[in-house]
Design a protein that fits this description.
Elements: E1 9-14, H1 17-28, E2 35-41, H2 47-57, E3 63-68, H3 70-75, E4 80-83, H4 89-95, E5 104-107, H5 112-121, H6 136-154, E6 158-162, H7 170-177, E7 180-183, H8 187-191, E8 202-205, H9 217-228, E9 233-236, H10 243-250, E10 255-257, H11 264-267, E11 276-279, H12 284-292, E12 298-302, H13 315-321, H14 323-326, E13 333-334
Parallel strand pairs: 1-2, 1-4, 2-3, 4-5, 5-6, 6-7, 8-9, 8-11, 9-10, 11-12, 12-13
Helix pairs in contact: 5-7
């Protein structure tokens, strides 16, 4: 990759808590140069709490955070060096302005990273979020964005900084395009002191599937009832959640509901031997094992039962969400 911008500052567009964590990791690893300015959206649920939790750990030197509205970010003339969502409408609007994205580091944004790599590997694919309907205009923008990102790759100006295991042959194909793949081992987070203490023996990581209309709410609550039947549970809602569903979960005997916000990779570092984490297919199932398993914390990933899905969850989207399960050892995957 080329050196940072002439003023020595690299700018990163951040639109989710996981993107924020991975931007900090990219900066700490030296990928973005000695000074990084994070342009943080002010309209994303849970992002402010995520920032507070990371600040409490002590942000690395040379990293500054600038919280702004999407309109203010769009009006900012600074070149964008890093982002986690190349399918974002805001990012694509900047990408298609000549000179705004001269080089790019793509950081993790959950399972969307795997879909993004698959789309980059296929020249016929636009950069669009999986499972989201798109108008003809939106598809045209997605195709233009895909061509722009592939051009960066061909010039040696695109790298992917990821903690995920990219499937073959997508990994080989994007390397052929000129993409450099840099592994993210969450080294900075590993170096930080543990903060939040969780006493319950079981932690359940909430999913956004109900809030997104993909999974039946009643089935989800019944699944939580089953988890609570075996003892005290700490439930961490997803930043996108339905309030009435969380209230029903909070009323279950033995369940303590935490505030959503900070990435679970940050807040679960204080777990110890004998505790366990349960979740549905989610990126956390891939990121947490290196952090928790060495300390004797078990991680269980439960598949989504077929009768949970709503008509909004297309077969293609279901397969995308289950990509997590294909990357896990069989002994960590259980029935819902």
């Amino acid at each position: 990759m080329n050196p940072p911008e002439p003023d020595g500052v690299s700018h990163a567009l951040v639109e989710s808590p996981l993107q924020l964590l991975c931007t900090v990791e990219a900066h700490a690893a030296g990928l973005l140069g000695p000074r990084t300015r994070v342009l943080l959206r002010d309209d994303v649920p849970g992002l402010s709490a995520a920032l507070d939790s990371l600040r409490a750990t002590g942000l690395p030197e040379g990293l500054t955070i600038d919280t702004r509205s999407p309109w203010a970010i769009a009006a900012d003339r600074s070149p964008i060096r890093a982002t986690g969502d190349a399918c974002s409408g805001l990012f694509q609007a900047l990408l298609l302005v000549p000179g705004r994205v001269p080089q790019l580091t793509l950081i993790d944004d959950g399972l969307a990273t795997l879909d993004l790599v698959a789309r980059l590997a296929d020249p016929s694919q636009p950069l669009l979020r999986p499972g989201k309907p798109a108008s003809l205009l939106r598809r045209a923008v997605g195709h233009a964005a895909a061509r722009a990102v592939r051009r960066l790759a061909g010039r040696g100006r695109l790298e992917i900084f990821t903690a995920l295991a990219l499937p073959e042959p997508d990994r080989s194909r994007v390397r052929e395009l000129g993409v450099q793949i840099v592994p993210n081992s969450l080294e900075w987070l590993r170096s930080r002191p543990r903060s939040e203490v969780i006493a319950e023996p079981t932690v359940v990581i909430g999913a956004a599937l109900v809030a997104d209309g993909l999974v039946d709410a009643e089935s989800y609550v019944m699944w939580m009832t089953k988890q609570a039947a075996s003892g005290p549970v700490r439930y961490i809602p997803h930043r996108r959640h339905r309030r009435e569903v969380v209230e029903r979960i909070a009323a279950l005997p033995g369940v303590t509901v935490a505030e959503p916000g900070a990435p679970v990779e940050v807040r679960l570092r204080g777990l110890s031997a004998g505790q366990r984490v349960i979740c549905l297919p989610t990126t956390a199932a891939l990121l947490l094992p290196p952090l928790l398993e060495p300390r004797g914390v078990a991680i269980e990933v439960h598949d989504v039962a077929e009768d949970w899905w709503t008509p909004r969850a297309s077969p293609a989207l279901r397969e995308h969400l289950r990509e997590v399960l294909r990357q896990l050892p069989d002994n960590t995957v259980g029935a819902p």
